[in-house]
Write a sequence for this structure.
């Protein structure tokens, strides 16, 4: 899962600077940045301080296989621009800059991914659980990017006590919700699982747990 830190480092939150492998991930981070801090610039986890001009992700030393540089960048202006950030002045396109510049950080910790047919357990993961509006927006953007119009299971259910919605991995009662108006309604008496409803802008809905929807999973 991606999240934003304003002053402290990602390591202080047992995470790392975000790494971007695809355009879909890039779009997701841009939406996150625009939602949480429009006009701010954000560090990512790329650098070229090992070999000048060879950009790699810091956690793996793998060369970039996707980039979103602003035209003319990277340019290593001043000879010491060895870190990559999303530059607010250039619509969050990538730019190189000195690593000590005081920008915000986009960190990643849990891995969120979509499964079309198989269950999360087969991928050593759990159905995603949502604790805040920021996390909800992130999942909605993820779902819209990878499969607009599709429905996606989350990890909530009320099959223990009808009407008491809890996260399956912890049995904790929801402290945040994003229900479609009029939901949950337990239509038919057997709607005990929670999903993002593609037909209504990814708002939450209850449905029978056996419905054939996609899954959003998370793991450390």
């Amino acid at each position: 899962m991606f999240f934003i830190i304003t002053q402290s480092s990602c390591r202080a939150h047992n995470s790392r600077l975000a790494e971007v492998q695809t355009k879909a991930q890039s779009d997701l981070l841009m939406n996150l940045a625009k939602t949480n801090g429009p006009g701010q610039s954000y560090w990512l986890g790329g650098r070229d301080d090992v070999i000048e001009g060879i950009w790699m992700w810091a956690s793996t030393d793998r060369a970039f296989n996707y980039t979103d540089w602003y035209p003319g960048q990277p340019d290593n202006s001043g000879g010491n621009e060895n870190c990559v950030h999303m530059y607010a002045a250039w619509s969050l396109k990538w730019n190189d800059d000195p690593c000590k510049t005081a920008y915000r950080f986009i960190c990643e910790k849990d891995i969120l991914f979509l499964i079309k047919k198989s269950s999360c357990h087969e991928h050593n993961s759990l159905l995603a659980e949502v604790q805040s509006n920021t996390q909800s927006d992130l999942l909605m953007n993820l779902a819209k990017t990878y499969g607009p119009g599709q429905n996606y299971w989350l990890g909530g259910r009320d099959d223990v006590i009808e009407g008491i919605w809890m996260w399956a991995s912890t049995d904790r009662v929801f402290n945040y919700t994003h229900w479609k108006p009029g939901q949950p309604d337990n239509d038919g008496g057997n709607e005990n699982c929670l999903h993002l409803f593609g037909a209504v802008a990814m708002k939450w809905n209850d449905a029978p747990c056996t419905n054939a929807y996609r899954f959003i999973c998370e793991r450390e």
